[in-house]
Amino acid sequence: MGRKKPTETRRRRGGTVRRSVTARARRSRRRMILFCCITVLTVIVAFVVLSLTVFFRVDSIHVSNQSTYSDSEIVRLCGIEEGENLFLVDAGNAKKTLDKSLPLSGGIRVEKKFPATIVITVQKPVVSGAFEQDGQYVVVSDERKILEITDEKPTGCPLIQGYELVSPKPGNPVQAKDEKTRDTFELLTRSLKAGEFSPVTRIDVGDIYSMMVEYDGRIRVLLGNSNDLDLKVAAAKKIVEGELESDEHGELDVSLTRDLKKAYYNADSSKEEESSELEP
To answer: Which strands sit side by side in the sheet containing 108-113, from one edge to the other?
Structure first.
C-alpha cells in the first residue's frame, strides 16, 4: 500500500502540468484574438479617416442638361464644390435646392460616382396641366412641380378647374387645399391614362360628385362621381371615337353607364339641340 502513493503523486503532477499548458494556450489565443481585433479596428479607423480627409475628393461635376438653364448655372446653384469629400456630399439636399432654384426644369437627379465625380441630370420639363386659380394659371409638370404662374391661359395642356392649390410658388411641389379633391383627381387622371382617353383639354373637379372632362375641346363628358371611372372612361372613348363625327360639338353623359347600360348625348347647335341615346 505504501508504494502506490508516489505513483499517484506523479499522476497528480502530470495532470497539473497538462492543465497549466492548456491554460497558457488559452491565454495565448485570447491575446492573439484581441490583437487581431485591435489591428482590424485600427485599419478601419485609419481608412475612414483617410477617406474623409485625403481620399474621395470631388474633382469633377458632370452635368447632363436638357433644360434652358446653362451648365455653369446648375453647378453654381447645386451647392457642391470641387474638393469636397464625396462621402460628405448631401446629394438629396442638392436636388431639393435645384428643384427650387430651377422651376422651369423637369426631373432632376444628383448622383455620386466613385471615386470622385458628381453627376447632375436635369431633364426638359413635360407640362401635365394648368390649374386655374384666382384669375391666373399655375403650370405644372409631370413631376407635380410648379413650373410657372402666368396670366395667360397656356395651350397644349389640359386646363384644370376646381382644384385649389395651397400657396403655389414656382419650384414647389403641388399641394392641394382639399384632400378629397386631390384623391378624386388622381383617380380620374389614372383612369384617363389607363384608358388612353385623349386629347383631354379640360378637367373640372369643382364638384367631385359631378365631374366633367372635355375631349378635344369639343365634347363635354359628364362622369358623375368617382365610382366605376374605368368603365365610364371606356364607354366615353368608344362613343367619341366610334359614333360621333370628328367635328361634332356637344355633351356626353356617361355617369349612369353602369346602372342603365346607356349614355346620353346632346349636340350643341345654334338653332336647336339634338339629343340622342347611345349604348356604349
So the answer is: 60-65, 117-122, 108-113
